[in-house]
Known about the structure:
The structure holds 2 protein chains of 2 kinds. Chain A has helices spanning 6-23, 25-46, 50-73, 75-82, 85-90, 96-123, 130-157, 164-191, 197-226. By secondary structure, chain A is mainly α. Chain A has one domain. Chain A is elongated. The mean pLDDT of chain A is 90. Chain B is an alpha/beta fold. Chain B folds into 2 domains: 1-66 and 140-196, P-loop containing nucleotide triphosphate hydrolases (Rossmann fold, 3-Layer(aba) Sandwich), CATH 3.40.50; 77-139. In chain B, β5 (142-146), α7 (154-169) and β6 (173-177) form a beta-alpha-beta unit. Chain B is globular, with a radius of gyration of 17 Å. The A-B interface holds A 1, 4-5, 8-9, 12-13, 15-16, 19-20, 23-24, 82-85, 87-95, 226-227 and B 39-43, 61-62, 64-65, 67, 69, 71-80, 84, 88-89, 91-96, 118, 139.
Amino acid sequence: MSAPSTLSMFRWIVARDLTLAWRRRADVLSTLFFFVIVVSLFPLGIGPETQLLRSIAPGVVWVAALLASMLSLGRVFANDYQDGTLEQMLLTPQPLYLVVMGKVLAQWLVSEVPLVLIAPLIGVQFDLAPDALLTLFISLLLGTPILSLIGSIGAALTLGLRGSGVLISLLILPLYIPVLIFGAGAVDASITGMSAQANLYLLAAFLVVSLVFAPWATSAALRISLE
Amino acid sequence: MRGDRRLFSKVSFALAPGSFLQLTGPNGSGKTSLLRIICGLMAPESGEIRWQGAEIRALAEEYSQSITYIGHRNGVKEELSSLENLRISSGMTGSDVSSEEAQKALARMGLAGRENLPARFLSEGQRRRSALARLITCNTKLWLLDEVLASLDQAAVRLIESVVGEHLNKGGMAIVATHQELHISAGSFQRLELAS
Lengths: 227, 196
């Protein structure tokens, strides 16, 4: 037997989760539609007051993104926990850190990336300028991986509990607040003609910190949940 | 210990290459807990598990490379076919299995012609067979099987006995929790009965 390559095991995990997501397309699409519909309700409800719409746009889009990510988080580990495949993953000869990274990466690609891609399009409903749309796109691109990473901690902690969906929200939404503030802040700055750089750099810094610590915390939580 | 209850104490045994251990005991006596402790999913309240002289917690991933654990939850994804399930679960443990090898293993488990059917269309016993196909393709030393014979028919039980027998002849080890009488040709056959 050749020495197991960590990279190839990582690829198997990501490929597996992407295949599973493809077999359950409805779940993925429902998250995306949720996001689109929640964001679109605001311009419809408020009417054609462009000034007001422009000023609420960053907050609305970001809050909708947070809520949409809550919808998909419950599924990260729960399904694998139920059929016993999560146990098997814990027993694979690779650091649990990498298993978690693989699963979070797949969750991000499947549930968050479509949302990031469609955000500039629905931002048009809020009469945002091309600059602001670009900032919205970049801030979501930097921010959504943080949502997936932090969310995975909550998903791991609430594994196997009843009503875990609500519990995840209570645990995780407060932790999302900094991301919301700086994500929406970046778009806000760019709408009012200021530079969004400072906010975006802070988001990038959050991303780096959560890349280092969140998978580690998630691994610890998974070990506890599976005992 | 599970919750506040002491399940068992003073359990001690050693397995040499080629030997087989059958765990028996009434429901709730701690067979599953013992197996989960041995594979490292659970930590014992006190005591230790050693693999080739070293504590398994210290060996961590190195130990995981030497064991295969199949529990009552099969670890079979309903959305994936048996073939995909087998190849993915092998790939994740670091031993890539080619499509032909996987097909051969599934054929031996009596799933020929159903390899590409999503597992949700399989019966409980067939799913079990598909999970057990991993035993044929893996090349780990120690097998830990928890009540895996439950929904299998007679023919499948005989098949598993022969697969385990071959494994033992090659110097492997197996710990199986089951109530059924097993006919396995092993260098040494031990039985551990946990009292309730």
